[in-house]
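Support request, please re-run this one:
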Amino acid sequence: RSSQYQSNKTDTTTMAHILHARARLKDDKAIGPKRLIPRMVKNLTWISLRRVLQSFRGLYSRNLGMPMSWQQIVVVLMPRKSQIEDLTQTRALCLINTFAKWYMMTLLILAEEDFEAKGHALNLFGFRKHRKVHEITAGLKQVVRHSIEWGKYESLHLGLADVKHAFETMTFERAASSMERVGIQAKRRLAILSCLIDNHGVVNFQDTTSEDIKWDTMIRTGGTEGPFLWNCETVSMWDEVVQSWQEKGMGYSLEPSYTLER
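Re-run finished. Output below.
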């Protein structure tokens, strides 16, 4: 697979990586500690960008995780419905430092190179650039239409999995295992996880505030890493099933072209 970063011969961050990552920062999202908005970093001078690149390279090359000030998060408990009985009926939304988001997004772009090089991205429709979840219906319609003919001799089976509160139940251990299973390089896995395991937050709910709460079990809901880690978990979750089907000559690949070969 040709890559826009193919000229990068060493495993490091480049100016292309940090500019790509910065472009992904959304201006309309709630900001975290330090009150630094994405629009500010999008207007940095070239000299400032070179300093940012130097900092990101240093953190990544020495496996330093993130500076402590970047690891401070604000956690807002959002009720899932108008009337709640306890905190289990709330959703924890993490507000994260803009520089922490920027650095994490840079690491994710590096990890995505591994993910896409393995071909995992071909059949994913959720959390994919230029791909919408509903696009999978076109391929499914073709399968169902063809099954009318195939049904004379064979059966059509669809495998479904409904995961409740997916992001909120994904532990660091599962994230590490999933990234390893889909082929993310060890250095990149370590860099991503190092930024997550020592976060401390201020939790806000209505008029109550609790400080210095350690966030050390689940991935951060609302964090930039959530969608990518969930894609890794999805591929990992179905990996054994897909391999079993392929060995038996079963299953169809719903690629964007939606072409089917029996």
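The radius of gyration is 21 Å. Helices lie at 15-24, 38-41, 46-61, 98-117, 136-150, 172-181, 186-194, 226-247.
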